[in-house]
Amino acid sequence: MNYVQKIKEESENADDYIYKDIKLNDNIINIINIETITSSDDINNFILKKISFLENLQTNDLVNYLYNYLPTTSINKIKDYDTLKDKLLNGYTILIINNKEILAVETRRNLTSGPRETDYEKTILGPKDAFIEHYNTNLGLIRRRIKNINLHTKSFSLGKYTKTKVSLLYLNGIVKKELVNKISKKLQKINIDGIIDSNYLKKYLNTSKSLFPTLKSTERPDLASEALLEGKVLLLVDNSPEVLILPTFFIDFFHTSDDYYQKSINASFIRLIRLIAFIIAIFLPAIYVALTTHNPDSMPINLLLSFQSQRISVPFPAFVEAILMIIAFEILRESDIRIPSTMGSAVSILGGLVLGDAAVNAGIVSPIMIIVVAISAISGLLIQSIEAINSIRWYRFLVIILSSIFGYYGIFLGTILILTNLSDAKSLDKDYLYPFAPINFQEQEDGFLKISKPKVKLRNPILSNNKVRGK
Amino acid sequence: MKKYLILILLFLVTGCSSYIELNDLVIINAIGLAKQNNNYHLYISYVDEINKDTIEPTTTVKEMEGNSLNQIIDDLSLILSKKIYMSHLDLLVINDSIKTKELENIINYFLNNNETREDFLVINTDNIKDILEQTKFKEINDLIENNQRETSKTIYTTMYDVIENYYQKENIYLPYLTYNNSLTLKGLKVFSKNKYSLIEEDEVIYINYLLNKINSYKYSYECADDKFLYLNILGANVNELSKELLITNEIKVITNDCKLKQKEIEQIFNKNLKDNLEKITKKKLTIKNTIRGTYEN
C-alpha cells in the first residue's frame, strides 16, 4: 500500500495537507502533516533541521535511529494505516520511511490562548480562572489543584469522524470503582459521528426523564476539583471549555464554589435565598394567575382592588397576559445572549424600559404583571446552570397552566408533579434528591444550610467508601 | 398508563373550576337587610373603584327588593352584568324587622354559599341606608372594637357568633348603632324569642361578665362630696360552676380621694357588681379581687 497516495485519495488533496519527500542516502522519507493543526516551528526545528544533519548517515535501521535521535518524547512507531490517520488528524507529523515503516511525532499547534476568566459561573471570592478549549490545559488546571498520584485518567476516543479525546478523571481511593466502570461502559457504547463539545455526551449519560438537569457542567476548575474530592467523576472533552461532573444531585445547583470560601452562616443565608428564589421563579406567576382568576378571596381587599384597577384596561385574560409577558422576557433574554455585547445595553433599554413602559401605557399589560414576571425571571437567574434555568421555565409554564384551570388546587397539583418528577429522577442510578430522599441527616449539614463542623467531616456515603475526609 | 389515569381523575374530580377575571367581579363590602311587606329589602354596598388620591375604595349603595335573598342577588348580577362576589363582605346590617324566620334564611344563605365567609361583623340599626351610605366600615369596626376593648360596653358579633347562638338557641347579641349626622353606639340589641330588646351601654358590662368576655372598663363611686373613687378594671375571669359564679377581677385604683382601705374598696365595688348581676342571674356570686394602686392598709 502506498500510504501517501492513499491519504491523498481519502483527503481528496485537501490543501492544508502538506507532503514533503526527503531522499536520505538510499532511503526515502515521506513527511506528512496538516498545517492548520501543526506547529511549523516544531516541524522545522525538531524534525527537518535534525534530518538535514543526517546527510552522511550510514545505517540500515533508519527508523530506530530516528526514533532515538529526534529530540522529543512524544514519538510513536505506527503499525497500521488507521492509527496513522488518527495521529495525523491529531496534529502529529507522520514520517513514512521507504513506504514501510512509520513514525508519528507530536507537533500539535497550540490553537488556544491561556486560561480565561469565568464567564457564567462568576464568584466574588475564590479563583477566577476557567477551563478553555484545550484538553491538556484543562487537565493541568485540575492537576495544579490536586497534586496527587491517585488522580487517574481513563481516555476514550469518541466520534466516528471527530475522534475526540474524552477522559474520565477520578481520584482513586476516594471514588467508588463501580461508578467509573459504569461511566466507562456508557462511553464505550456511544456511537456518534462526532463529539464537538462535552455537552454532546449529556444525552448519552443522562437517562432520567426529569426536566431538571441530572448532569452538571462547569467552567470552574475549583468546583471540578471539589467534586473529585467528594468522590465524583469528571469528564474532560478535548475542545470543550466545560467539564461534566457525574453524578449530579438536585442540591448541587444551589451550591456555588464561593459557599466554601466564606463563613457558614453567610453561605447558609445565600443558599436559602437561592431556594426561595427558585420557588418564586416557578410559582410566582402561577400564584398571581390563581389569585386573580380563581382565589381572589385570599387577598386583602385593598390589594384586590389595586389589582382590579390595574387590570381594567388590559384586554387579555390574566393567563394570556402572563404567558405573553414570559415569552417577551424569553425573547429579550435570547436576544441578549445572541447579540454582540456592544449592542446589549441598547436592547436592554429598548426592551426593558421603553417597551415595558409603552406596553403599560398602551393598556396591553398591567404594571403588576410586569412586576410579577420580572421578579420571577430575575429569581430564576440566581441558579448558575443554564440548563437548570431552562428547566425552571418549563416548570413555570406547567404550573401557570394548571393554576389558570384550577387555581390554588392547580398549583398544588403542579407541586406534586414537580416533586414526583424530581424524586423519580436518577443521576447515574443515584437518587437525584439525595440527601433529602432518601434522607441523610449528616449530608444535610451541607444541603440547603451549611453547618460549620470543625471536628470530623465525612464524605457522601453514596459516592465514596473512603468516608472520613482528611484521611 | 395507571398513573396517567390517576392524574386525569385528579384533574376531573376537583370541582374547583371557578375561573373568573377580576374585572368581572362586583365586590360587595356591606349588606343591609330589612323586611317590608313580606319582601326582603336589600341595601347592597359595592366597591366602584379605588380613589387614587386617598387610596380608599369608593362605594355605591343600591336598593333592591325581592322575596328571597338568592333572587335579589341574581337580579343584581343581571343588572350589573358581573358576578356578585361576597368573599370580602365586611358588614351585615339588619333592623328589628329581621326575626327568626328571616334570620334562618340569612343563615342558610351564607352557609350554603361557599364563596362567603362567616367572619363579617353583624350590627343592628334603625338607619340602615344612612349607615351604609354615610359611614365607612372601618369607622363602624373601630367604634365597636374600641368600645369592647376599652369600656366593655358592647360585644363584637360576627356572623359566625350569630349562627352558633341561633343553633344553640341562645340569645343573639348585636351592637346597636344609630346615625344622626354622626355614628353613635347605643348599647346592645338582644334577639330572643323572636323579639329584640335593648340593653343600655352600662348594663352591657354585666352581660359581658356573664359571657366571660369582659375587658377593661372604668368604675366610679362618689365616696363624699366631690370626692371620688375611680377604679380601672383591667379584666376579669368568670368561672361558671353549677350554682355559683366565681369572678376574679383585676383592679387598679386610679383615684382614692377618701383614702379608703382595701377592704372598703372591695366592699363598694363588690356590692355594685352583685346588685347588677343579681338582676340578670339568680346564681350565687363569689367575687375575688386583685387590687393594685393607692389605698390605706
What features would you highlight for this structure?
heterodimer; A: 471 residues; alpha+beta; 3 domains; five-stranded antiparallel beta sheet; 15 helices; 14 strands; 44% helix; elongated; B: 297 residues; alpha/beta; Alpha-Beta Plaits; 2 domains; nine-stranded mixed beta sheet; four-stranded mixed beta sheet; 8 helices; 32% helix; 39% strand
Report, as a whole number of angstroms, the end-to-end distance of chain A. Answer: 57 Å
Task: Give helix % range of chain B.
Answer: 25-40%
> What would you report as the Rg of chain B, rounded to the nearest angstrom?
24 Å
Distance between the termini of chain B: 86 Å
Going across the biggest sheet of chain A, name each strand in turn: 1-2-4-5-3
Q: What is the 3D form of chain A? A: elongated
Unreliable residue stretches of chain A = none
Radius of gyration of chain A from CA coordinates? 29 Å
Tally of structural domains of chain A:
3
Compact summary:
The complex is a heterodimer of chains A (471) and B (297). Chain A is an alpha+beta fold.
Mind explaining what this structure looks like?
The complex is a heterodimer of chains A (471) and B (297). Chain A is α+β, with helices and mostly antiparallel strands. Chain A has 3 domains: 3-106, no CATH class; 116-248, no CATH class; 262-430, no CATH class. Chain A has 15 helices and 14 strands. Chain A has a 5-stranded antiparallel sheet with strand order 1-2-4-5-3, with helices on both faces. Chain A has a 5-stranded antiparallel sheet with strand order 8-9-11-12-10, with helices on both faces. Chain A has a two-stranded antiparallel sheet with strand order 6-7. The two termini of chain A are 57 Å apart. The model of chain A has no long low-confidence stretch (mean pLDDT 87). With 297 residues, chain B is of the alpha/beta class. Chain B folds into 2 domains: 25-201; 216-292, 2-Layer Sandwich (Alpha-Beta Plaits), CATH 3.30.70. Helix content of chain B is 32%, strand content 39%. In chain B, strands 1, 2, 3, 4, 5, 6, 7, 8 and 9 form a 9-stranded mixed sheet that branches. A 4-stranded mixed sheet of chain B has the order 10-11-12-13. In chain B, α7 (201-210) packs across α8. Chain B is elongated, with a radius of gyration of 24 Å. The mean pLDDT of chain B is 87. Chains A and B meet through α10, α14 and α15 of A and β1 and β2 of B.
